[in-house]
Design goal:
Oligomer: single chain
Number of domains: 1
CATH class: Alpha Beta
Structural class: alpha+beta
Radius of gyration: 16 Å
CATH superfamily: Gcn5-related N-acetyltransferase (GNAT)
Shape: globular
Distance between the termini: 40 Å
Largest sheet: 5 strands, mixed
Strand order of the largest sheet: 1-2-3-4-5
Helix content: 25-40%
CATH architecture: 3-Layer(aba) Sandwich
Length: 165
């Protein structure tokens, strides 16, 4: 595989990000996301950094190939959001919407995405850590995260969603 490139996502990536989110939700939770809602949510993040930021991994186009249909293909993504920690007096970045296209898994795509986020976090004043949540049954993801030096934070996540969400 050609070297991958990591970059900040842009509005032109919105459809791919939405499709990857749909695939991830089905793969990990057997949930079907509402297409209009996920597309609006992705566009909201891309239009407002206070909501979060997406990073994408792309496979470079072949040498000598020109044209928009041959532009580098997005093969993975990660989004981060911010949580203020009064205990630590700093921001914790939460990784969300982690997805690597099945054809590119096991090739270091997520490792490269994570490193880009970590580099950004380490150069951003006030960021004190990075967290993520993972489905209890997703042993493959847990194994990857442990290999990348994540530890179990000792918390279970509870939620109370408001009607209509």
């Amino acid at each position: 595989m050609s070297p991958i490139t990591i970059r900040r996502a842009c509005l032109e990536d919105a459809e791919t990000l939405a499709r990857f989110n749909e695939a991830m939700a089905w793969e990990t939770e057997h949930k079907r996301l509402d297409p209009a809602t996920i597309r609006a949510g992705v566009r909201a993040v891309l239009g407002d950094e206070s909501k979060g930021r997406y990073f994408v991994a792309t496979e470079p186009a072949a040498c000598g190939v020109a044209g928009p249909q041959d532009a580098p293909r997005v093969i993975g993504q990660v989004m981060h959001t911010r949580e203020w920690s009064d205990w630590r007096n700093g921001d914790i970045w939460w990784l969300q919407s982690v997805y690597v296209h099945p054809d590119f898994r096991g090739r270091g795509v997520f490792r490269s995405l994570l490193q880009a986020v970590l580099d950004d976090a380490q150069s951003t004043p006030g960021v004190v850590g990075v967290r993520l949540y993972v489905e209890r049954e997703n042993d493959a993801a847990k194994s990857v995260y442990r290999k990348l030096q994540f530890t179990d934070a000792g918390y279970d996540v509870f939620e109370r969603m408001l009607s209509g969400t």
